[in-house]
Design goal:
Elements (H helix, E strand, L loop, with lengths): L8 E2 L3 E4 L6 H9 L18 H16 L4 E7 L7 E6 L7 E8 L8 H16 L4 E7 L3 H9 L3 E2 L11 E7 L4
Length: 179
């Protein structure tokens, strides 16, 4: 992977863009809002509780991108620069042919097809540009919205796989049909 040049991705209504320090209030909200984080289990050390922690997270995302370990995009409407969610890929396999997707979205924008569109953009980028063979998604067994989203986009539940770190999670996979 080589993320030295940040890849902005556009659709008719969305822009997947670099997350910057000016987004720290939105990151704080996305990472601390109870409804958004209902099904997210994070160790205390990874919880974002204030602006300083949000800024640190943004810096960590940038460092991880520069090290080609992961990449995260801010989701915004094309004509409105305010961050409304995030989506990214991380945990690349060694070869690297597999990676894990993660996402969150402001509750005001739920049920509008935004995350479906953003996920499609990420899938296309991952399979076409990065040449990944498989994308994994870990989601809480009770997170019906995320489960519906993944199934709608062709992800298959891997009943035999277990998330040893978070036993409440189930694992989905999407294979690149052109590889």
């Amino acid at each position: 992977m080589n993320f030295n040049r940040f890849p902005e991705i556009k659709s008719e209504r969305l822009l997947l863009r670099r997350i910057s320090e000016t987004d720290c209030e939105e990151i704080l909200f996305l990472r601390s809002d109870e409804k958004i984080n209902t099904y997210i289990e994070r160790p205390e050390s990874r919880k974002i509780k204030n602006i300083a922690a949000a800024k640190k997270m943004i810096q960590d995302l940038e460092e991880s991108r520069k090290a080609n370990e992961s990449i995260a995009w801010g989701i915004s409407l094309k004509d409105e620069p305010q961050l409304i969610g995030t989506i990214g890929i991380r945990n690349f396999s060694e070869n690297p042919k597999t990676a894990e997707v993660g996402y969150d979205l402001h509750t005001e924008y739920h049920q509008k097809g935004i995350m479906n569109e953003a996920l499609n953009m990420l899938i296309d980028f991952s399979f076409t540009t990065l040449q990944l063979e498989k994308i994994e998604a870990f989601t809480h067994v009770e997170n019906q919205g995320s489960i519906r989203l993944l199934k709608k986009n062709g992800f298959q539940l891997m009943k035999s796989r277990k998330d040893l770190d978070y036993p409440s999670n189930i694992i989905f996979e999407l294979e690149n049909s052109s590889s």
